[in-house]
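Reopening this ticket.

The earlier resolution said the output was attached, but the attachment link was broken on my side. Pasting everything inline this time so it's all in one place.
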Amino acid sequence: GGAATVNALTGMDTNLASFLIPWGVIAYTAAGGLKATFMASYIHTAIIFIVLVVCVYTVYVKSYSTDSIYDMLQMVASYNTDQCEAIFNDGTKT
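Inline output:
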């Protein structure tokens, strides 16, 4: 997972990334002990929440309004089985 991500982002060899990532974790844990581990978890969680808020803002405020989202959900909820199969199965029967 992490090694493949580092490989995709930087081009680093996957085996080398698999070896270096745990050493990075060991280094910051050894430098700061358990406090560093908790701080890293806190920072990562904060980043995830910020990204989530930005995504929600982009969808609900910038791109669409809550009324248009509601109207689109109502439209999808009104589809019958045949319409859903035509949309989601490209017309192929399962």
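Reporter confirms the inline version is readable. The radius of gyration is 22 Å. The helical segments are 2-10, 14-63, 66-77, 81-88.
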